[in-house]
Amino acid sequence: MLNEKLALHTPGPTPIPPQVAAAMARPMINHRGEAFSAIYRDVAEKLQPIFQTREQIYVIPGSGSSGWETAMVNFVPVGARVLNIVIGDFGERWVKANKALGFEVARLDYAAGSSANPADVAALLGKEQGTIKAVCLQQNETSTGVFNPVREIAAEAAKHGALVIVDAISSLGAFPFAMDEWGVDIVFTGSQKALMCPPGLMLIAASQRAWKAAEQIRNPRFYLDLHAYRQGFERAQTPYTPALSLYYGLQAALEMLHEEGLANVQERHYLMGKMCREAIKTTGLELLRQDEQFASPTVTAVKFTQGIAARTFRSTASKVFGVVLAGGQGALKETIFRIGHMGYITPNDVLVALASVENTLAYLGYPVETGKAVGAAQAVWLEHVRQER
Amino acid sequence: MLNEKLALHTPGPTPIPPQVAAAMARPMINHRGEAFSAIYRDVAEKLQPIFQTREQIYVIPGSGSSGWETAMVNFVPVGARVLNIVIGDFGERWVKANKALGFEVARLDYAAGSSANPADVAALLGKEQGTIKAVCLQQNETSTGVFNPVREIAAEAAKHGALVIVDAISSLGAFPFAMDEWGVDIVFTGSQKALMCPPGLMLIAASQRAWKAAEQIRNPRFYLDLHAYRQGFERAQTPYTPALSLYYGLQAALEMLHEEGLANVQERHYLMGKMCREAIKTTGLELLRQDEQFASPTVTAVKFTQGIAARTFRSTASKVFGVVLAGGQGALKETIFRIGHMGYITPNDVLVALASVENTLAYLGYPVETGKAVGAAQAVWLEHVRQER
Question: Which InterPro entries does the UniProt record give (chains A, B) (predicted)?
């Protein structure tokens, strides 16, 4: 039944606006000419308010995962001791990356569904007495739908002279983030989340303090050497061939985000998270993050009731009800599903995702009153628009 | 709030699938070459099962409204007496077209929300004793969300030697229709309804009996002279420049309809109509067509509760809740709204449209239990998929 018109609720890749798709269909140009430089400058300028920084932002052809390596090899000497804060699977992956690159990893681990506690970071950094050169953390842990108090953790790191490196892949654009004000040293994101583009671009910025530290560092690196990007910035040129069509798309997406208004974009994401949580509470299913505080505005993780097979649940939602939900990752693979609500997603899209949860439960034989969860989400939305009047 | 991502629920234009949009972006070609002829033949072949005919189908650059004139000036002598069956605003418009073209119009009128009764047609044709040369009717009256029993009316017309001309603009593709089997002489539709394309193409077919009648007819006509199209059919060429990008789009849309399966497409439309009706019944609003029989699978008309201003209702649904509903036409302008559910629309889209009805009522201060109407529609959908198992 129009199976190709699926509602995509994975937490990245996210749906592409038609304006972005149209922009990406534009013809190839000479990337060493003025036409590309104009796009480069426009994109760089429109990104600064999203990062909340006066620093230069570099756009690199690569997956989000290239952000970990780019941040590390440019700003931290290989062999140095770093702290990885791990609240989920992406935190875990960053540990792997750091170890593979030759860093010595100290960890702070939290149970799935928890956020990091700045007091723990302070205690650990105090105990380590200046041996930790960098603190690595996700702003939003995509695998659990929980975010971290970046500002408070950055403040603790600064006290101990450690760089703060933030993976804001599934948050930047959708969350409040203030690189300069919060004292974040390095932050990176990907094109396929709140920035409403296909995957393929990694975007990264570094503070003056980070660049100062970089001067002393001679790590082995080539493709992800940010100095080459930095040297080209004034000329509005990339060191290697830029991913042109993705650049066109990013320009169109940034235009849309600014037209909506960055504060409105963040408010929309907060609203959608709240709609999901209030709806799920009516279903008998349990939120992985039960506390409202630090519950993600971009992805909601839900525990399965005993007896529901994860694979059956998601394939039913997709094949019978046309909604693509995400599964769990790592240890949570069989025990949760996730609703992505980031990027080119509206409250109406969230209603469809929630209807699919109800419909799928009912189809699989669980007692469900159809419309109850959707109705709870509608009520949250109505309350929101009433307050806006 | 992402205001440009509106859910379009007008009964035409309807949303365009990305595949159709992509096809329309293809470059222009020489329309007198083999590349276009191949598209022409493919489209002609894929249209026949939708019309359920062995006759040739012609694709003409024009609005749906050009269908009335094309059908009349090619197959009925100007000045002849014709019967117009009027169950709503589009029936009324056809009367105007016929009068403007110089036909003598007899009418059968029905109240808004009613369908035509074949017995009335039989009685009128009997009384007229062969003076009526053609019976003109809509299969689906877009302004009221009611359809007519075309097959039964065609049978009555045949008994009295009158041609049957059917405007299937808002039905063809979404409804069962069997031109040859039902004895329909002329049928036409538009590209922007169930055929999932932008407006701009009118598609028309005529029976052998109609073509035989056409031989004697010397009406003034030029652009809409179907003989010119007929002469080009074997060569797969149009008499005038075809609307190339719309042709590309139509080819892609037909490919999608056949892939879904024509019976499945019709079933989807029936399901969506049923979902709307069962949902509306829970809201306290009243369906314009209360009887299930002849209630349209492509558009549902709903009466306003006293006190709701039509303009406020629709602008709230659109501006606050992101759903574009249609207003009433003609005499129904202030008293109804309509939900279009045809073409590239899924049951999930219908849930969003219904949520917007609830949300808008609640926002405007009417007592509404959010989720009740949506839940009723979900229940209809669930029942449908359970039966399919």
Answer: Aminotrans_V_dom, PyrdxlP-dep_Trfase, PyrdxlP-dep_Trfase_major, PyrdxlP-dep_Trfase_small, SP_NH2Trfase/AEP_transaminase
Taking only the tens place, the pLDDT of each residue in A99-110 is: 999 999 999 999
Q: Do B251 and B266 belong to one domain?
A: no
Residue A39 located in a structural domain:
yes
Are the Cβ atoms of B344 and A18 closer than 8 angstroms? no
Say which amino acid occupies B147.
F
B385 CB within 8 Å of a chain A CB:
yes
Closest CA to A103 of A155, A45, A163: A163
Please choose, from the candidates B90, B67, B45, the residue with its C-alpha nearest in 3D space to the C-alpha of residue B202: B67
Assess whether A355 and A248 both reside in one domain. no
- Contact status of B356 with chain A (Cβ, < 8 Å): yes
User: What is the span of the domain harbouring residue A196?
Assistant: 18-258
In angstroms, the separation between the Cα of residue B125 and the nearest Cα of chain A is: 42
Those residues with Cβ within 8 angstroms of residue A50's Cβ, 6 or more apart along the chain or in another chain = A172, A173, A177, A254, A257, A262
Domain end point (choices B225, B240, B258) = B258
Q: Report chain B residues whose CB lies below 8 A from the CB of A347.
A: 1, 322
Hey, what amino acid is at A135? V
Return residues 68-127 of A near B (CB < 8 Å): none
Of A203, A225, A258, which marks where a domain is finished?
A: A258
* Site of tokens 């993600």: A296
The model's pLDDT over A164-203, given as tens digits with 9 standing for 90+, comes to: 999 999 999 999 999 999 999 999 999 999 999 999 999 9
Residue A134 lies in a domain: yes
pLDDT one digit per residue (tens) for chain B, 389 residues: 676 799 999 999 999 999 999 999 999 999 999 999 999 999 999 999 999 999 999 999 999 999 999 999 999 999 999 999 999 999 999 999 999 999 999 999 999 999 999 999 999 999 999 999 999 999 999 999 999 999 999 999 999 999 999 999 999 999 999 999 999 999 999 999 999 999 999 999 999 999 999 999 999 999 999 999 999 999 999 999 999 999 999 999 999 999 999 999 999 999 999 999 999 999 999 999 999 999 999 999 999 977 889 999 999 999 999 999 999 999 999 999 999 999 999 999 999 999 999 999 999 999 999 999 999 999 999 999 999 88
Task: Say which CATH number the domain at B143 has.
Answer: 3.40.640.10
- Same domain assignment for residues B208 and B62: yes
Q: Which neighbouring-strand residues pair with B69?
A: none
What total of structural domains would you count in chain A? 2
Closest residue in A to B263 (Cα–Cα):
A1
Q: CB contact, 8 Å: A331 with chain B? A: no
As a three-state string, the secondary structure of B274-341 is: HHHHHHHHCCCCEECCCCCCCECCCEEEEECCCCCCHHHHHHHHHHCCCEECEECCHHHCCCEEEEEC
Determine the distance from the C-alpha atom of residue B248 to the mean position of all C-alpha atoms in its chain, rounded to a whole number.
21
Residue A338 assigned as binding residue: yes
Report how far residue A302's alpha carbon sits from residue A276's, in angstroms, rounded to the nearest whole number.
Answer: 10
Tokens, residue B136: 């003109």
Q: Which runs of consecutive H residues, i.e. helices, occur in chain A?
A: 18-24, 34-51, 66-75, 89-100, 118-128, 150-159, 179-182, 208-214, 226-232, 244-260, 262-281, 310-319, 347-363, 372-388
Closest CA to A344 of A4, A1, A20: A20
* DSSP 8-state assignment for residue A331: G
Minimal C-alpha gap between A8 and chain B (Å): 12
Interface residue A351 vs chain B (CB under 8 A): yes
| Subunit contact B370:A378, Cβ cutoff 8 A | yes
Structure tokens that stand for A366 in this block? 């669980």
d(CA B237, CA A362): 53
Q: Cβ distance A360 to A315 under 8 Å?
A: no
Q: Which residues of chain B lie closer than 8 angstroms to A262, CB-CB?
A: none
